[in-house]
Amino acid sequence: MVKSQKTRKFGIFFFKLPKYQSLNIKPNDLLYKIVGGFYLLCNMNITKKEPSEKLSESDGQMLIRISKKFVVLFILILMFDSLLDWLFGFIDIVVELIHIVIEFFEYSLEIFLEHIFNANHHESEIIIVNFVIIIALYGIYRFCFILPQFYIGIKRRIKVAWLRRKQAKIAYGKLYL
């Protein structure tokens, strides 16, 4: 074990985490724990590395494997416009189906309101529109409370990524402080 590393307990895991003395991160800081968590995830051996099948394949098998990739790439290049049309057509169908479902519920609610409140068509539509506006305003109100937390989370992720990149450059000797 290198002297600049020490074993830290992170949750139920023990791992070796380099000290971030040059970055002014203390072991009790939240950022130290976040960077430690990323360090743990990046250095975990999830699966055993098996010897590659590519090393033991014959020339014919390699040619067939590469030929399949080129055929798929060639088809994608030739059919790119058609594939985009299919994709946009599928998106259009999904949006139309969502619209039909919304119209079904709106019409059902409209009939229900006309029957319960003995209202005409215009009055039931006004009730539905006002209800939807109230729900939208409540959603905007809740979003205003969530937005700062979302901003802080994004800012924290950017800082952690920057610190990881800075630490990697320091480790490889490309950045001098």
How many helical elements?
A: 4
Strand content: 5-15%
Overall, the morphology is flat
N- to C-terminal distance: 25 Å
The succession of helices and strands, N to C, reads: EEHHHH
How many strand elements?
2
Low-confidence stretches: 1-17, 40-49
Look at the structure and give the mean pLDDT.
79
Which structural category fits the helices and strands?
mainly alpha
Q: Report Rg.
A: 29 Å
What's the structural domain tally?
3
Determine the oligomeric state from the structure: single chain
Helix-residue proportion: 55-70%
Largest sheet: 2 strands, antiparallel
Explain this structure.
With 177 residues, the protein is mainly alpha-helical. It has three domains: 5-42, no CATH class; 58-118; 120-177. The protein is 69% helix and 7% strand. A hairpin with a 2-residue loop joins strand 1 (5-10) and strand 2 (13-18). The chain is flat and about 80 Å long. Residues 1-17 and 40-49 have low confidence and may be disordered.
Key traits:
177 residues; mainly alpha; 4 helices; 69% helix; disordered N terminus
Can you lay out the helices and strands and say which pair or pack?
Blueprint: E1 5-10, E2 13-18, H1 30-42, H2 59-78, H3 80-117, H4 121-171
Antiparallel strand pairs: 1-2
Helix pairs in contact: 3-4
Provide a brief overview of the structure.
By secondary structure, this protein is mostly helical. It has helices spanning 30-42, 59-78, 80-117, 121-171; strands spanning 5-10, 13-18.
